[in-house]
Design a protein that fits this description.
The chain contains 12 helices and 14 strands. By secondary structure, it is of the alpha/beta class. The protein starts with a strand and ends in a 17-residue tail after the last helix. About 50% of the residues are buried. The chain binds sulfoquinovose-uridine-C1,5'-diphosphate (USQ).
């Protein structure tokens, strides 16, 4: 298939590009290095430096003899995105091209504005480009479980059958996000749903939980092909942060009571979920929604796991509850459905001790690159 990956340089975009290229798909990647630029500006670069996208592609070609086509540019610029779509005529468009950090979106007005402008304009441009150049194409959009928030009822997979005053309908599950970033993802879903109804687009919206890990089949054993591993407060997800903190001897930063529950998944499962979605496309005129995670944990449970496995490896891991900089429920009901991707054949890579050991050992090798001042800067929600 001709596959266009938007945000192909990112934590998830690059592993997805390698995975689909390894399966002999015709892969094109697009990126404007926004994530790299923001990490640089905020002085929170990843644990190890990653070669730029063109260099990554050259290394991939050298190792596997496979070609990935790159475009470097800004997808919120219509003339650029129109040219990319015109030249590639994609059958599948995988849309990761967003500012992905909740704390970054809450930094200040400028960061909020960048997040809103980038995320919504890129999504709108993708919709217009698909309509103009490839109306049959399947859009696979990375959404987030954070769109639902933490309601006191079971979370369904995207849709809710509602009976109200004697009448019934099937509507999008109510959404109430906990950050501006998560709110832009709700707005993305609304944009996509509107144009699915209006123009008959074919869309899969993946409500993904926090991802952890670094290795995927294609990068294991090849350091130079690894994605970014961020351990800082802005771009690091919680488990990756705890791994780096454990290695650095920095007490694990559990926010507040630590009862916050989320649906987590291994980075390998992200790649597999996206592949399963493209192998089993949504229909024209359908907005299909999957909840993309494999198991739920509280923050306290994650900290305990890292502590136990770290101890076995000889690390002295401490846990410290700190005042929660975010506005979120710290003790709540959480029971989201997640059968759609399992029904398509997903075989989860669960968070085993072995998986934790592998991550800890990898980070240990780069321990000298961990800068403690980058770990916690207390970006507050108020
Ligand atoms: N947390 C801590 N200590 C930390 C960092 C985080 O206790 O040092 C807590 C947070 O308060 C939160 C939970 O851990 O309750 C998860 O935080 P996170 O930073 O791993 O995840 P989040 O900010 O929600 O965002 C991440 C990705 C985002 C994705 C989202 C999925 O950055 O792109 O959309 O996970 S979800 O959380 O399901 O919305």
């Amino acid at each position: 298939m001709r596959i266009l990956i938007l945000g192909g340089d990112g934590y998830l975009g690059w592993p997805t590009a390698m995975h689909l290229s390894a399966l002999n798909h015709e892969v094109t990647v697009v990126d404007n290095y926004l994530r790299r630029r923001l990490s640089f500006e905020e002085n929170v670069e990843a644990l190890t430096p990653a070669p730029n996208l063109l260099e990554r592609i050259r290394l991939w070609q050298e190792k596997r003899g496979l070609t990935i086509k790159p475009y470097i540019g800004d997808l919120s610029d219509w003339s650029f995105i129109a040219n990319v779509f015109d030249e590639t005529e994609p059958e599948v468009v995988i849309h990761y091209a967003e500012q992905p950090s909740a704390p970054y979106s809450m930094l200040n007005r400028a960061a909020a504005s960048l997040t809103l402008n980038n995320n919504l304009n890129v999504t709108a441009n993708v919709i217009y480009a698909v309509r103009e150049f490839c109306p049959q194409a399947h859009i696979i959009k990375l959404g987030t479980m954070g769109e639902y928030g933490t309601p006191n009822i079971d979370i369904e997979e995207g849709w809710l059958d509602i009976k109200h005053k004697g009448r019934s309908d099937k509507l999008l599950f109510p959404r109430q996000a906990g950050s501006l970033y998560h709110t832009t993802k709700i707005m993305d879903t609304d944009l996509l749903w509107f144009y699915v109804r209006t123009w008959g687009l074919r869309v899969t919206d993946l409500m993904q939980g926090p991802v952890y890990g670094i290795f995927t089949e294609e990068s294991r054993g090849h350091e130079e092909l690894l994605p970014f591993f961020n351990y800082d407060e802005l771009f690091g997800t919680v488990l990756n942060r705890f791994i780096a903190q454990a290695v650095a001897g920095y007490p694990l930063t559990v926010y507040g009571g630590g009862g916050q529950t989320r649906g987590y998944l291994n980075i390998q499962d992200t790649v597999n979920c996206v592949r399963l979605s493209l192998e089993n496309p949504a229909n024209l005129g359908e907005l299909r929604i999957f909840n993309q995670f494999t198991e739920t944990f509280t923050v306290n449970e994650l900290a305990e796991k890292v502590k136990t496995v770290g101890k076995n490896l000889g690390l002295n891991v401490k846990v410290k509850r700190i005042k929660n900089p975010r506005k979120e429920k710290e003790s709540h009901y959480y029971n989201p459905a997640h059968t759609g991707l399992l029904d398509l054949g997903l075989q989860p890579n669960y968070l085993t001790d072995k998986a934790l050991e592998e991550m800890l050992s990898h980070v240990e090798k780069h321990k000298n690159n961990i800068h403690e001042h980058k770990i916690f800067r207390n970006t507050k929600w108020d």
